[in-house]
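User: Show me a protein chain along with its predicted structure.
Assistant: Here is one chain, sequence first, then structure tokens.
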Amino acid sequence: MITSAQMRAARALLGIDQRQLAEMSGVSLPTIQRMEASDGTVRGVIDTLTKVVEALDRAGITLIGDNAESLAGGRGVRLKQPKPAQPFKPPAQPPKPAQPARPAQPAKPPPEPR
């Protein structure tokens, strides 16, 4: 019916956060959070899933299933081929550059005779 990635992408296209989607659909915020945190197709109570899908539809989102054509027009994005889920790895931190050596302090000149 809908994948967690589709839910996150739909929210991004609409510029809304999870709380706003919860309000639009009449579903609790923890439910939206759980749905978006799931892997692949969102599972749950059919009535709840339907509320979310219908809220997204009212907001202008068309969900496109695998191998389905998109004839409705409008802007959007589509994943060409789903990739297997992989855990997120933050980019490696580049090594910090070495601190340049401080220049030696010049020796103090001897005091001048009086």
